[in-house]
Structures are given as C-alpha cells and as structure tokens.
Request: fold
Amino acid sequence: MKAICLRQFGGPEVLEYHEDFPIPVPGDQDVLIRVKAAGVNPVDWKIREGLLQGRLPHTFPLIPGWDAAGVVEAVGDGTNPSSLKPGDEVYAYCRKPLIQQGTYAEYCTMTMDHVVRKPSVLSFSEAASIPLAGLTAYQSLVDAAKVGAGQTVLIHAGAGGVGGFAIQIAKHLGATVITTGSAEKHAYLCALGADVVIDYTAGDFREAVSQRYPDGVDVAFDTVGGDVQRASADCVKSGGALVSILALEHEAYVRSRGVEPLYVFVAPNGPQLARLASWIEQGALKTRIAGSYPLQEAAEAHRAIQTGRTAGKLVLTIDG
Reply:
C-alpha cells in the first residue's frame, strides 16, 4: 500500500513516501479502513520531531497520522456484524497505545467501537478534518468544563483546528464566546459564531476581557500554553475553570486564583464522534479545509501546519 513513514525523528524531510508497505491485518475487534483522506494535526509534527517520544511509545518505521475518513474494507471476526460492514463510509480518531500504524496510508485499522459512519453531508476530506480536533474541543468543553447555557467562555486561537470547533460547540451549548485571533482572521472567527474577537497582537488580552467582563469569564480554554495559560487564569472568575490541552505548567498559580485547572488529552470515543456527526448534519457544526495535499506531499503539509497560521484544517488525500 501507499504510505508515508519515518525511520528517524527530524524535520519534514524525514517523511518518506512508499508504495510497497504491507496492508495491516485487522484484529478480532478491528475495522480495516481504506483511507480516502487523513487529517493533519500539530501533534503529527511533534511526533515527527520526537518531542513526544518520552510520553507516547513508538516503533520505527512509523506511519504518522491519527485522523481518517474512508471506506470499510474488512471487519475482524469478533466484531458486531450489525455495526459496520464492508462498503460503509466512516471516519475515526485512530490513536493507539503504540505509535506505529497511523493514517497517512491507503489502509489503517482501528477498534470498531471507535469507528463511526461519516456525516453524509461531508466529503472524505472534510470528514477527515474533524476527529482529533472535534473530539478535543468536545471533551474539553462538554466533559471537562461542563459548559452550559448562559456561561461565558474564553477560547484561545479560535482560528486553529481545535479552537474553531470549540467556538461552534460552545455556541451550540448556549454559551457566549470570546476568542483571540489576529485582525485578518476577525471575519472568519465571527462567521464561526464568536461573540467577541480580541486581537492578541494589539495588546494584553486580559485587559480586553476585563473591560467587557469585569467579574471574569466562567471558563477559559487554553490551546496555546506557556504565558497564555497563566494569564488566562486572571480572566476567570473565582470558582470557574481553566481547561488546557497543554501541560498544566501553571497549575499552582491557577489554583491560587480560585480557578479549577483541568487537563485534557483527547481519547478515541465513538459515541462522541457520532454525536459530532449529528451536529454536523443538523448544521450546528462546520469544518473548513485550509489546505489539501496529495499523500506524497505530506512534508509540505507539515511545513504549512508548523507555521501556526492556518485558518482551518489541513488534510492529505489518498488515491486508490
């Protein structure tokens, strides 16, 4: 099968394109997916550079990628025959305990419980852009922070993949959304549903938040880390929550402000992915493809996502 792999950690140049990789064999509880499109996420380049090797077990040669949309090719002998069958169009977040067989390939396997039918209104490329980022936003706002109607939520980097889904999910839950972004992305962020857009390049975002919400927001969602995480705690009212998808390096400070620090490392979840699909089909959630690349140009996709300037999601398309 066609696949992108790396045999060592390094820059985009270590991503190798091959056409003779063996097709993975599904286990008893697995689905074999013929991948039509694979999502590209920031975690992919971090894995490629070896930044997560101490946290995520891996084996070389390593096929990167955790997001997939495609067609069921085969199912394991132990799977529920009433769930999915060959020919079904599906999408999935395919992170496994061992980082080795990812989605930058013609075929991938995943536990059937985590694979669901893709939204019928989306193309394969659009569907592949959703799982990791959509589930991250869902698990952060719904599961961890328990955002509800009438609350105010500060979402950082709203133009990013996770941030964009977070804005839409928070609005769907009935919250008021403040987000940060550069001036050129203001219109895009408003189109996503943001009520207030703060240009983080124009000054301290804390001042802009406090002018509008002097008592603080209910929830801050940190997708940036570092100083932004610490400063975000200053924007949350006592008794509120700060949820981060980065290490809680300022946990003590967050707690000292009377704010609950919450950390989320997104996990595969089929029922939640199915719920996102229903929201998409209802028109409550949309995705935007910022760039599409053929599989063999994965290195270019990695160079693009590492700029941190994409508004929307990047995907790889796979022929065959």
Observations:
- The chain has two domains: 3-130+287-317, 133-263.
- Residues 263 and 273 are 20 Å apart (CA to CA).
- The domain at 133-263 is CATH 3.40.50.720 (Rossmann fold).
- The radius of gyration is 20 Å.
